[in-house]
Q: What sequence folds into this?
């Protein structure tokens, strides 16, 4: 520190950071999500921020096709020339880490394995407005060996519905989970004689059902997937169907999909979601139930909570058949939307419930004794360090501290109502 | 997934990962630490995992001299050739991020700014047994503009003592915080006429007071710092002093240090720490109070909780005088020690309180209704999916679920005591 050169710091694009009053709401959200996950018996796991690059490359997961472009690789700044270690990359989702975790610890886990995971993930995309390069995801998955009961497909929407309707600031949001089952479309495509390669193209196009004009999708189904008008008509009938009972299955797979979807819709709480057969998720990874969740007033914002059922979690890492069902809350995208819209209940800048003002000529111990007693009763307490009353009160106001305790008079003031009463720190509660 | 090639995953050296039952205790620890931090009014902040490399280089912080060797730099796997972005590095501590945060958001913060931060940090050291490359630190700091009352120097030990004596599994650990004030030694070196350059050498040597034989330190003080026997004798008298009142100040700085240390010792709870003048922390960064915390039975394990007072948090980022005092719990090192020693209360593999066994011929809704009611009462509940009673009970036992609810009979069984009673889900509590 011999020469003082000021390096003025600035925000790093794509790496969000909140002021304490916003972080406080973020914590409330995290606590609430965790609490609901746990109320359904999901256990927490946390995996390292990194995976070996070979592990990431061995598994596509739910990361999307272009995900290898988005990976951040670590380099030691002063690495040795003889460095023979495996290359490490920050995880870009929590599905690859889960698959690796389950394979690695298979013998130590009890199945069905119900886990939640709330961690940061990283995607090294080019920075652009509204795109995060570091963000939180909150995932749940249930994994079983060989066979996983359909009841878990109905549990995920119930959990998400409970969470989304209880997050502070979300009270007035009109959010809708849309649920489908890929077996229905896949069965139909089988029945229509669509070739394997073209099935992928069809699902990718149907995945854009809400984004692209339907005439354009129909054209692309012709030109890119080689379908004829009759096939396209049947597909559109199904994915536009308003009522499951209007659909008649053309083969066993389609019937299975309809039965599973009916079971799910029958077993979720009222209002937790609607059946929508245009939901397919663009990924081959999903094999049955699929979920997406949108703001009804702004579906173009995209899904804030997606997932589904898959046949094979970790086939690339372990020779076991591990079907599962999972769903992921895009925490940061959801949180930041409400933050920007000014809908978060941002108020207090600190967890402090009470600011204790020391008595005149107090050596500090009197105020400390009061603070200790209040803390033992469960309150969060600070002791004022400013000397003048005016500054002390200004501090409480600026930080949004709801109560001020006057040690001199043994009185406590409610900063919002202005009411001031005598109180005993042993019995008083905020 | 056309060809199935098994890539068997393994642990990555230095990146710890726990099974669910260990992670559960880690969460209990985190919750307890957060709760105590908040009870003293500290607010949470969370900074991005990365800082610009220039920001890290502009500030040494509390990271130690060789820290630039240990930084992990990020590279996008497929970065564009015209990539002109700033280089990003994972943070190696929480002091650099705090300094940058306070400078960047200075106008939006209320001072004294009391913040806690519980995040992962990364150090790209060569892997070796017992060394983490990714680990948690739990830090508190209080920052003020121009002047920070000494009362906060006494608050930090109180908080740490409260935490360390309440973490599950730590009940029988004999832990000692050792507190000193650098002004005492610095004042003495002034009084002894030791040159500036040699002061650094002296503090680095005294920092090894417990690790090296004292004769060796005395020799090095002679050869490396050019001190004579009388100077060395005086230094040893001071750093070995058992009682603060035995020391007489040789100048104002020394007296200031003695007064401050006496205040701190006077204002911490009984048992929260001892004065130990051999504690200096090897870093120029600290200017007053310094803390270290060791296992009394195994001081060679090193400090698990260190910190101190500094004059100037963010002088490299902002033209403000920002003194502070802070302390950092080396969470992962502490936690992993107890884990390896088998002292953590590891039991349940999940948060589930109750496993509900559906009635015979139940379509699932009866069990779901019971589960919903129990959850509304605050219990964490799963529904059994195995069909046979024996498998259901084995699942509860393996996962350590304390209660099993028999929907058929309306009875609940305490798995530990074996007691089974009739119960109403509306009123029953675990």
A:
């Amino acid at each position: 520190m011999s020469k003082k050169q000021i390096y003025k710091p600035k925000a790093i694009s794509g790496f969000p950071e909140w002021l304490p009053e916003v972080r406080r709401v973020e914590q409330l959200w995290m606590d609430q999500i965790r609490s609901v996950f746990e109320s359904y018996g999901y256990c927490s796991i946390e995996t390292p921020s990194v995976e070996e690059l070979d592990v990431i490359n061995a598994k596509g997961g739910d990361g999307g096709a272009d995900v290898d472009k988005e990976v951040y690789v670590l380099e030691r700044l002063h690495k040795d020339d003889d460095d023979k270690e495996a290359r490490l990359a920050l995880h870009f989702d929590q599905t690859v880490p889960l698959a690796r975790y389950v394979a690695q610890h298979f013998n130590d886990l009890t199945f069905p394995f119900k886990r939640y995971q709330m961690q940061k993930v990283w995607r090294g995309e080019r920075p652009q407005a509204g795109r995060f390069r570091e963000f939180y995801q909150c995932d749940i998955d249930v994994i079983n060996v060989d066979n996983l009961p359909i009841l878990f497909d109905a549990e995920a929407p119930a959990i998400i519905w409970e969470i989304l309707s209880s997050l502070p600031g979300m009270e007035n949001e009109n959010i809708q989970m849309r649920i489908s089952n890929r077996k229905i479309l896949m069965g139909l495509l089988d029945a229509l004689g669509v070739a394997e390669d073209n099935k992928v193209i069809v699902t990718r196009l149907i995945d854009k059902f809400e984004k692209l004009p339907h005439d354009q999708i129909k054209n692309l189904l012709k030109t890119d997937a080689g379908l004829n008008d009759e096939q396209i008509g049947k597909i559109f009938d199904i994915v536009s169907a308003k009522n499951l009972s209007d659909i008649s299955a053309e083969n066993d797979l389609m019937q299975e999909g309809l039965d599973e979807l009916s079971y799910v819709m029958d077993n979720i709480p009222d209002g937790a979601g609607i059946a929508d057969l245009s939901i397919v998720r663009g990924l081959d990874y999903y094999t049955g139930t699929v979920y997406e969740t949108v703001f009804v007033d702004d579906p173009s914002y995209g899904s804030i909570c997606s997932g589904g059922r898959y046949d094979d979690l970790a086939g690339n890492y372990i020779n076991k058949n591990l079907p599962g069902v999972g769903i992921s809350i895009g925490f940061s995208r959801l949180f930041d939307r409400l933050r920007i819209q000014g809908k978060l209940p941002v108020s207090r800048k600190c967890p402090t419930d009470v600011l204790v003002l020391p008595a005149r000529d107090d050596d500090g111990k009197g105020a400390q004794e009061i603070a200790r007693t209040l803390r033992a009763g469960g309150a969060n307490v600070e002791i004022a360090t400013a000397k003048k009353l005016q500054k002390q009160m200004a501090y409480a106001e600026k930080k949004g501290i709801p109560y001020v305790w006057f040690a001199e008079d043994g009185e406590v003031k409610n900063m919002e109502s202005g009411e001031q009463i005598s109180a005993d720190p042993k019995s008083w509660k905020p």
Summary: The first helix of chain A runs from residue 20 to 39.
